[in-house]
Amino acid sequence: MSTQEKIIEQIEKYQTIIIHRHQRPDPDAIGSQCGLATIIRDSFPDKTVYQVGSKANGLAWIDSEQEVPDQAYQNALVVVVDTANTPRVDDTRYTKGKMMIKIDHHPNDDDFGDLTWVVPEASSTSELIFDLVDSSNGKLRLLKDAARMLYAGIVGDTGRFMYDATTPHTMRVAAGLMETGFDAASVNRQLDDIEPAVARLSAYVWENMQITVNNAAYIVLTSDILNKFELGDAGTAGIVPLLGKVSTVKCWTIFVQQKDGSYRLRIRSKKAVINELAKQYGGGGHPLASGAVIKDDSQISEFVKKLDQIAASDTGESNDK
């Protein structure tokens, strides 16, 4: 029996299913979580299905989280999607169910769950949810609204199909989702839109970004800067790709100060692998898209030197995301 068949078997077995995703969710986290929840509801109307997590600013148009009572976890199946390691799971109650399934496309550095389906070669977890439906022999139904959510997740995690992890299979999945009849152009516009405050922050980033000798780029966004633009950490997601649009830049990092003075690092690369660098600072992720944390600004200079060394070693050969 394949892993997909085992997952479907457990979905059929449990009356209550609770789906978690990672903290500070992106479109793929919301899309795969809520898409799977919607698919299960459409396929098994008698089951109780929850999607749990803290409020996702700016992504409520995909779908929203629900209040889940503690007692719901008793004898429940818990599914954790798009989450590489346990510290990143949103809502610590994910351990309270009777069984746990992990579905993810990040490198499997933290192999948690009773049943694990991890495919790092996939463009997104939303792509995997489509594959799960496709392998179900009709047991799982993919209708228009769930397809819209999965499509949003794929478009978000592939950078509008620009990243290396976009494969022919990814495009076939996107086409299959579009065939359900949702308004794909509307989803694309929603993902491309930015708030006026983010537009102003974007201008600041272009003006103040730094580029090292070996073409690594970075910008430091302190709390004072974010307050000036009336944005918090969540509002900075829209500016992460900007530095990579510069033709000479090989890899880049956005430093975002947190309330406790630490900095969240959004690390990206066009070709050179950067997730090992992220691991040195308590983070991780994809070879070309990772995150990490430093305790304060005293570590910025050290990190930038290491990022510059990675840029210097870039041979131009492609690495999958």
From TrEMBL:
<feature type="domain" description="DHHA1">
    <location>
        <begin position="239"/>
        <end position="312"/>
    </location>
</feature>
<dbReference type="GO" id="GO:0003676">
    <property type="term" value="F:nucleic acid binding"/>
</dbReference>
<feature type="domain" description="DDH">
    <location>
        <begin position="17"/>
        <end position="154"/>
    </location>
</feature>
<dbReference type="InterPro" id="IPR051319">
    <property type="entry name" value="Oligoribo/pAp-PDE_c-di-AMP_PDE"/>
</dbReference>
<dbReference type="InterPro" id="IPR038763">
    <property type="entry name" value="DHH_sf"/>
</dbReference>
<dbReference type="Pfam" id="PF01368">
    <property type="entry name" value="DHH"/>
</dbReference>
<protein>
    <submittedName>
        <fullName>Phosphoesterase, DHH family protein</fullName>
    </submittedName>
</protein>
<dbReference type="InterPro" id="IPR001667">
    <property type="entry name" value="DDH_dom"/>
</dbReference>
<dbReference type="InterPro" id="IPR003156">
    <property type="entry name" value="DHHA1_dom"/>
</dbReference>
<dbReference type="Pfam" id="PF02272">
    <property type="entry name" value="DHHA1"/>
</dbReference>
